[in-house]
Amino acid sequence: MKTRLPLLAALISLVLSFQPLLAQDCAFQLGFKALHDLIPDVVGDCLDDEQHNSATGLTQQNTANGRLTWRKADNWTGFTDGQRTWINGPQGLQQRLNSERLPWEPEMTAPAATQRLTLEQLRNAEYRLPLLGDQDTPIRLVDGMGTLVYGEGATERETVGLVNDTVAFGDLDGDGIADAAVVVFISGGGSGTFIHLVAVLDRDGAPEQAAWAFLGDRVPVRSLTIAGGQIVARTVTHRPSDGLCCPTLEITRTFELEGDQLVPRQALVIESPLPGETVANGVEVRGTASTYPSAESLAYSVYDARGGVIGMGSLPVDGYADQPGTFAAPVEFIAGADGPGRIEIVDINPVDGSALARTAVSVILQAAPLTDGRTSREPTPELVLESPLSGTTVGTTVELRGRISALPFEKNLTYRIYTQAGTVIDQSWISVEGDYGGPGTFARSIDIPGTTAPGLLRIEVRDESVVDGALIGSTSVEVRFTGGP
Q1: Cα–Cα distance between 400 and 464 in angstroms, integer?
Q2: Cα 263 to chain center, whole Å?
Q3: 45, 212, 294, 380: which has the fewest Cβ within 10 Å?
């Protein structure tokens, strides 16, 4: 061991010293260069030259921050960091989650991957798993089972095995060759049976483990599939109130291979209220998150029929890190009238404010009761935002200009600026010119906060009741923010 450590340190130093030279041996070309030059900090330096796969029609190039892809079938060029995708398309540079599609993007059916790996190979492969206190202990299975014997007198053992031959085949690394996912258990002889998901790559027809992820203690896996480069496991896991023996939370968990890690992809499900249900202020919203959020809570927004935000807040999530969670909490809003609405739940990345996942349910909103003696609320005025227009590219300063059919109380409107995740990054008032009883016009220059990242923003102008805070009228536009100077 004493001789290995200096040698290992020397090898690491040697590898690190060569990294800049390796980066200089590659270059971006054509469409990859154009996309890199638009977002150089997002893409990062190249790690190799582009490689074309004639079987899939894909040309790809690895970078320090992800992978560039060109698809011959529809001349599609994009970059992904494993979670988000930036596309240089017919509408310029656009960004979306990997799980989403832009309106102009066609639904592509991937060609079936060539399968060379077999169940027999996987039942007799070598795996690296968290055994004997090490996260990367090798063990070879024979007919789906393996045992490590240890301790004084070799009296202790850990047993590893494939769970009911639960295996799925599909392409995980985009090379057109089917890889595999398997479910294995680890048991040390006690009551715990620890279930792991393992990604296995096809390397010249032989299985090679890429990564593993812990699913839980005594967690049944109902089904396992690979689709769109992702591993989808339908499991029964533990609610916080469940005993370890008896999990009851049925949930679908999705994982994506990133380097040597299986990264869980968030999926949110609203179980209550149901679509079309009539809800009042304080309705309890219940559901599940396939991965416990790092912020320990989710954000909610409530929209009226016009798209105005009539309620915002957070929902605490009950669960544990790296495991699914549940939420059940009241949602507060003030509806100015009965009618259609929407409750949206978002998992916001605390690092950059982006949306990791979102879901929504359409409901019928029940107007808040009047408690001040009024028999009706203020009539809804026509509110028009003339500038900026939706789709406009804006810089750090934006002029809000428009009109309203009836002058608001005290001649004031308010505005809010939202990120794509629905987070409010700025809000204030706008003065309206005109005479009471008649229409009015408004204009105000506003500054986008300097900490805002480039991307899509939504600007909403609002007419709110000074009596109870109910939204009387609103209008909004979506603009593309280019970032600070």
Answers
A1: 18
A2: 11
A3: 294
